[in-house]
Amino acid sequence: MAREEGTYRAQSAAATGQDRKRPQAEERGSRLVPLPTDSLIPERDAGQTILECRHLGIDFGGLHAVEDFNFMVGKTEIAGLIGPNGAGKTTVFNLLTKVYQPTRGAIILDGIDTANMTTPQVSQAGIARTFQNIRLFDSLTVEDNVKIGLHNQVDCGMWSGIFRLPKYWLAEKEFHDRALELLDVFNMADQAGVLAGSLPYGAQRRLEIVRALATSPKLLLLDEPAAGMNPSETAELMENIRKIRDEFQIAIMLIEHDMDLVMGICEGIAVLNFGKIIAKGTPSDIQSNPQVIEAYLGTQEAEDNALQGKGRRFQ
Question: What is the pLDDT of residues 195-239, one digit of tens each?
């Protein structure tokens, strides 16, 4: 990655010696610009951050699970959070969604401090997530799973629901139409009446993303969305993530171990190790970072790879 007039520009796939097609983000002229902190966001989002973590941390007894986590995400950025197993990545997601309350630090969502918010309040404020392990309502239909995600947009009261007043039926029709519209993003509208538990694994993963989108998020958190997918499903997922960002104009932050997916779709990446960020930058920057290579491969193997020019191909 080269520094040009105070900005950071991602190298092309050809310049990094990779045969992978250049990510769509780079085709659109995306580049990262430095902020007053040590964070970077896409140039198009300059002055428009959706998420800012300031000195975020959490302790479990004497264990510092996450320590001094500083990170920003632009309003339409696809950002990545990577690191070895046990680095604290999912703990960060749990802090952002208030599954855990931070021991210290602040989380600013679209200019609002989320201190003391509960998980439902954070969802209402604009953060949605998926999980490492699929968490669907298996005995409900695909459409009903999506409708559950629409709960924070209900505009009819208890009595309207009990007595099936016109306002209730109007809301039901709106939810039905919206659910089908969201399912169509992933070409799943024809499976609306199928039980969620009977779907293939990849389709269940897609349904979980659709349900998260139903909450109308400003920031979508994807926790290992490609886990268990074959290469063709992963390629389709990459296109769908770009489609979500472009059509819904939201930010996406993902945790993933599939480096081809991360390097092919993320504009800015942070690397976490033992609860601390050890590197930030564009994909090409991260791939050649010695600390990142060491975190994944160990010191001796990292040195050997560096000597042999293999540093960019860590997995």
Answer: 999 999 989 999 999 999 999 999 999 999 999 889 999 999 999
CA distances from 253 to 81, 142, 202 (A): 7, 25, 20
Q: Are β-strands 112-113 and 104-109 bridged in parallel, bridged antiparallel, or unpaired?
A: antiparallel
48 burial class (0-12, 13-18, 19+ CB within 10 angstroms)? Answer: middle
Report CA-CA distances (Å) from 187 to 182, 184, 190, 240, 293. 9, 4, 8, 10, 38
Q: Which helix (H) or strand (E) holds 96?
A: helix 89-96
Amino acid at 94: N
Exposure of 168 by Cβ count < 10 A (0-12 exposed, 13-18 middle, 19+ buried)?
A: middle
The model's pTM: 0.82
Q: If you count them, how many residues does the chain have?
A: 315
Write the DSSP symbol of residue 18: -
Burial state string for 260-294 with b = 16 or more CB within 10 A and e = fewer than 16: bbbbbbbbbbbbbbebbbbbbbbbbbbbbbeebbb
Q: Write the pLDDT tens digit of every residue in 145-158.
A: 999 999 878 777 78
Instruction: Tell me: pLDDT of 25 over 90.
Output: no
Distances in whole angstroms, Cα of residue 44 to Cα of each of 23, 125, 195, 267: 16, 23, 41, 12
Closest to 81 in 3D by CA, of 219, 217, 185, 210: 219
Indicate the helix (H) or strand (E) that contains 125: helix 119-125
DSSP assignment of 24-67 equals HHHHTT--EEE-SSS-EEEGGGTT-EEEEEEEEEEEETTEEEEE
Rounded Cα distance, 192 and 190, in Å: 6
